[in-house]
Design brief:
With 479 residues, the chain is α+β, with helices and mostly antiparallel strands. It folds into two domains: 193 residues, no CATH class; 272 residues, Anthranilate synthase. 32% of the residues lie in helices and 34% in strands. The mean pLDDT is 90.
């Protein structure tokens, strides 16, 4: 197997058009000799840049994009315009994405400022909850793309990456001109005025609002509790979907700024499939992070509202920490994650007791799980084993997953699926697509779920999902 070629920045000291042309001409020669296109991945340190603002300034609904930001980590990345992409369905989708990325990396040359986070080629991915989806759903079961451009912020450093596809007949002069123009643009990025990208225009107003399958959720909770009593499974997660129709197309990126400001401890995200459909949200749940051989994941399960006063908030917190029902639900998730990691040869270490994860509108029980990795375990192999966790599916997985669609009677699609990125260093960040909405023109479908275990109550679970739905509903409807 060949490996990606890396050219240190010191070997290209002349940052000018002539040096760039020489690099790209070399890539074209390689493309001709190998009869395979080549990718030149150029990473540069730049001045202050806001990834969301950049994405909003050049947003094109016909192009793929991915944006992920967690304000509490002071980290954000945005990527758009696929240089290469692939879509897969079926149970082998994780292996297919891995194979696709390895083929691309075998034909990639990375150059530039390659020290630090978000440098070099990054693949952006979206996996639906299920291995297959209906033909008319907006996203396939797996989407992966290498972006034409990528901008990021991490620990006070700002970086831009350009990925160029070079084939045997590529016009190098034209490509150099475009890249040099983009380099100058990102050096001092000029953001469009609000009115030019819709921020100051008339905001969409909700014309109709309806729940898909109204009344079914409470019935399904009762059916699930009977199955739990029979010993069919320990836990199952059931979701609701609310459909909003506006008087004009929604502006999904405008909503993200509200979400990232309110939910600083969550991952605010957007993934576009390039067909004017966007999947957006603000999720508290990190499925998997790998950096420098260190794996981090979290078991998040068990919920309670926030109080209007310090006293009321403390009362809810104590009730959550002492709730047998919520603690049992949490243990199901934690032990399943540890077990799944062992299946791929990873020994995870979990905190002894769950802690409170307090968000703006809800609080959860959370347990950090960490592990050390070696290079023999690929991030997608781990992801394939972990997804979906009992936090969004159920336990045991084999018994609950076939029951979810029957009880919900809605297509989850990317809801409770995976959004994220991984790179040539086997690093990555994968988040779970909950507290989310599918945006298609004037249509928005909002999703929220609740874990059902012994002791659950249908009315309480209804209130919990109402609370989770409200965050996105407010972000969409309020100025």
């Amino acid at each position: 197997m060949e490996f990606m070629q890396i050219i240190p920045s010191k070997m290209l000291p002349e940052r000018n058009e002539a040096a760039l042309r020489e690099l790209l001409e070399g890539c074209r020669d390689t493309s001709r000799s190998k009869s395979h296109f080549q990718i030149a991945s150029i990473s540069l340190l730049v001045n202050h840049i806001d990834p969301l603002a950049v994405l909003q300034s050049i947003y094109d609904p016909s192009e793929l994009h991915c944006y992920i930001e967690r304000a509490a980590d002071n980290e954000a990345v945005a990527a758009a315009e696929a240089v290469v992409q692939a879509r897969f369905n079926g149970t082998d989708r994780f292996a297919a994405v891995k194979s696709f990325s390895e083929d691309i990396l075998d034909n990639t040359i990375a150059v530039g400022d390659l020290d630090g986070a978000f440098t070099g080629p990054h693949f952006f991915i979206a996996f639906t909850f299920d291995d297959s989806v209906s033909e008319d759903y907006s996203f396939p079961a797996a989407t992966v793309f290498l972006p034409r451009w990528q901008v990021s912020r991490s620990k006070g450093k700002y970086r831009a990456v350009a990925n160029l596809k070079i084939e045997a007949d590529t016009d190098i002069d034209s490509l150099v001109s475009r890249v040099w123009s983009a380099y100058r643009k990102f050096g001092v990025f000029e953001y469009l005025p609000d009115a030019e990208h819709g921020e100051a225009s008339q905001r969409p107003e909700i014309k109709t609002s309806r729940e898909l399958m109204p009344g079914l959720f409470a019935q399904s909770v009762k059916k699930a509790l009977k199955a739990i009593d029979r010993g069919a499974y320990e836990k199952i997660v059931l979701a609701r979907c609310v459909e909003l129709v506006a008087d004009q197309p929604w502006q999904p990126l405008n909503v993200l700024n509200k979400l990232r400001e309110r939910f600083t401890g969550c991952f605010t995200f957007s993934f576009s499939g390039g067909d004017a459909s966007s999947f957006i949200g603000s999720t508290p749940e990190r499925l998997l992070q790998i950096r420098n051989g260190h794996l981090l994941t979290e078991a998040i399960a068990g919920s309670a509202p926030r109080g209007a006063s310090a006293s009321e908030d403390a009362k809810y917190s104590r009730g959550l920490l002492e709730s047998k029902k919520d603690l049992h639900e949490h243990v199901c998730v934690r032990e399943s994650i540890l077990r799944r990691l062992r299946y791929v040869g990873v020994v995870g270490r979990a905190q002894r007791e769950p802690r409170l994860l307090s968000l703006a509108n809800v609080q959860h029980l959370s347990t950090r799980i960490e592990a050390r990795l070696n290079d023999s375990v690929h991030i997608l192999d781990i992801l394939a084993e972990m997804h979906p966790t009992p936090a969004v599916g159920g336990s045991p997985r084999e018994a609950t997953l076939p029951q979810i669609s029957e009880l919900e009677q809605i297509e989850r699609g990317l809801y409770a699926g995976v959004i994220g990125w991984f790179n040539h260093l086997n690093e990555g960040e994968m988040i779970v697509g909950i507290r989310s909405a599918l945006i298609q023109g004037e249509l928005a479908r909002l999703y929220a779920g609740a874990g059902i275990v012994a002791g659950s109550d249908s009315q309480r679970e209804m209130r919990e999902t109402d609370l989770k739905l409200r965050a996105l509903l407010e972000a969409l409807s309020q100025p």
